[in-house]
Each structure stands twice: as structure tokens, then as C-alpha cells.
Amino acid sequence: PYFRETLPGETPGKKLDAMTNATVIEVLNPLNKPKAEDLADAELLIIDIQDIGLRYFNYVTLLAQFLDLARENQLPVILLDRPNPIGGNTISGPVLEVDFRSQFGVYPIPLVYGMTFGELSLFFNKVFGIGANLTVIGMEGYRRDFTFRDTGLHWVPPSDHLPEPETPLYYAITGFLGEMGVFSTGVGTTRPFHYILAPWIDGELLSQRLARHQLTGMKFIPAAVKQFYGLYQLKRTPGIEIVIDDPQQFDPFISGVAILRTLWELYPDKIPLANPAISTSLDTLLGGPQVRSAIQKGIPLFQILAMIQPRLVEFRKRRESFLIYPEN
After folding, report:
1. Do 190 and 288 fall within a single domain?
2. Which residue, 190, 186, 240, is CA-closest to 218?
3. Which of 5, 13, 57, 123 might form a disulfide with 322, Cβ 3.0–4.6 angstroms?
4. Same domain, yes or no, for 90 and 131?
């Protein structure tokens, strides 16, 4: 999003920054990067973006595109680093399979990658051979175990549905679930991504079943919430609320999979994983069909977690060389 006021330009569709009169180029699809001629008079590319630490958030793909654009145009890049609101230590979820590249991820990294945007840019630039002339300006006083609130900085929402600095933690759990479109994750409430809601969900039963998994750092409680727009608009809808007690201990991916697997066990007719549209949505965001297929086969949660570990171990090793801030 572009946060400052814009003015109409001389030609239709052109926008100008109200303060500097500079041309504003809005990138709505991260796969559609600016054209070379858009940067004809540029001497430097500065990247100053608040990322949220999640592979399928558009800014990650946008970062890769900007680095590639800078290399093509022989422009030096300066990236101003910012905190990772999910945390600099949290690595979770499957590594993207190359066949599932999309606007939700172009390079094989985990769902939650445990790096700041500056560290990720260094990783992309070297490991995947982009080769841009990149300089990262690091943060002073930042620690990997900081939550965003620990930094004392003001949170400017990078998206309308990420209103609080804690929201990205919940988005990491339910973001890929919401793409199925068969239940609500709370978008349309005052707390997006904090809920799993549908008229057919028994919140008491679902929370009890999820408690059996003994997931660390979080809990599930029955809820009934009114949505102001989206699915079940203006209806008080039953379900569960997700509560993260310890951001350092919870695993966003396995928490999301536990929710999906439990819903599928309780309400198989409402969770049509074999439906092509739904399976494509899930596979695209998760980075491959492995997890969905495992759920359909009834594979236990701990085995699903074990399945993705080899590539996560490999990623952790490659990641070490690009960390600006030491691990605690």
C-alpha cells in the first residue's frame, strides 16, 4: 500500500506523490514488477518495507522482484531493515517446492522463515544468484527474540487486515486456512485471523479436540463472534478463538495443520480437501501438496511435522551465514 496522499498526474492513471511531486508506481501484483523504463532516471533503489515474516505475504515476492529489477538496471540497492513481527527465531512450515512458485512465493524458503527483511534480502541475493549490488542498513538494539512491541516502535499496518503488531502471528496460523473459503478466520471482525468460525462448528467440541494435541504456547477457547463483513456478515457465528500465550514457543504451521486436520475429522463433508479449487488454494500457499495429502491419508500430526524436517534442517544451515543479528 501507498501511505501518503497522491495527486492525479497529467496523463490518465498516473499518480504523483503530494509532497515531492515524484511519480508513484503502484505494484498490485508482486509478479508484475515495474518496467525498466520506469527507472530510466533512477540512480538508486531504496527498499523500506515492513514485512511480516511469512512467505505468502506479497512483500516477500516483491523483494525478490525488486532485487532482480535492480540487477537488470544496474542500480545499487539500499534496504532499510525492520523487525520481524513473528520473531527472528521462529522457523516453521514446509519449504516451497519449485513447481508451486506463484505470487505467494518464488524461492524455496519455509512458510515462516525466521529472518528480518534485510537478512532475507541477503539470502535471496546470494543463495538464488540474483547478484544485485545490495547494501543492508541494519537496526540498532534489535534482538531476534523481540516481539514488535518489545521494540517500542509504532506499528503501521502493512495491510488493512493486519491492524495490530500481533496479528501476523495469527495470520501465520490461519492465513492459508482462510483461502479455502469454507469457514471464516475472523476477517470482518475486529480481530482478523484470531478465529475459526462457521455455523456448523461446535466450538466446545473443536476446542476440546484441539486441546488433545497439547500445542505449546497457545490455547483454543469456544467463541461466538459477530462479523461486520465477509462470510456470515452481521451474524453471530460460533467457533473457536485462538490465543497465543507465548510467541517464542508456539509453532504457527503445526497449529494451523492441527486445526485443519481436526476440522476434517469432525466435519469431513464441510472440508472438501479433494475439491480441485480448495486443494489448489491450500497447495499454493503451503508450497506443495504434501501436507494436504498427508491429512487426507490420516497421517498423525507428529509424522506430518517429521516429513518436512529434512528440508527445514537444510534451510537452517544455509540461513546461518546471512544473520545480521546473533541468535540468542
Report:
1. yes
2. 240
3. 123
4. yes
**DSSP collapsed to 3 states, the chain:** CCCCCEEECCCCCCEEECCCCCEECCCCCCCCCCCHHHHCCCCCEEECCCCCCECCCHHHHHHHHHHHHHHHCCCCEEEECCCCCCCCCCEEEEECCHHHCECCECCCCEEEECCCHHHHHHHHHHHCCCCCCEEEECCCCCCCCCCHHHHCCCCCCCCCCCCCCCHHHHHHHHHHHHCCCCCECCECECCCCCEEECCCCCHHHHHHHHHCCCCCCEEEEEEEEEECCCCCECCEEEEEEEEECCCCCCCHHHHHHHHHHHHHHHCCCCCCCCCHHHHHHHHHHHCCCHHHHHHHCCCCHHHHHHHHHHHHHHHHHHHHHHCCCCCC
Tens of pLDDT, residue by residue, the chain (328 residues): 556 677 887 777 778 888 888 888 888 777 887 787 888 888 999 999 999 999 999 999 999 999 999 999 999 999 999 999 999 999 999 999 999 999 999 999 999 999 999 999 999 999 999 999 999 999 999 999 999 999 999 999 999 999 999 999 999 999 999 999 999 999 999 999 999 999 999 999 999 999 999 999 999 999 999 999 999 999 999 999 999 999 999 999 999 999 999 999 999 999 999 999 999 999 999 999 999 999 999 999 999 999 999 999 999 999 999 999 998 7
pTM: 0.93
Check whether residue 16 and residue 129 sit in a common domain.
yes
Is residue 161 situated within a structural domain? no
Within a 13 Å sphere around the CA of 263, how many CA atoms are in the beta-carbon half? 25
Its domain, for residue 33, covers 6-153+316-322
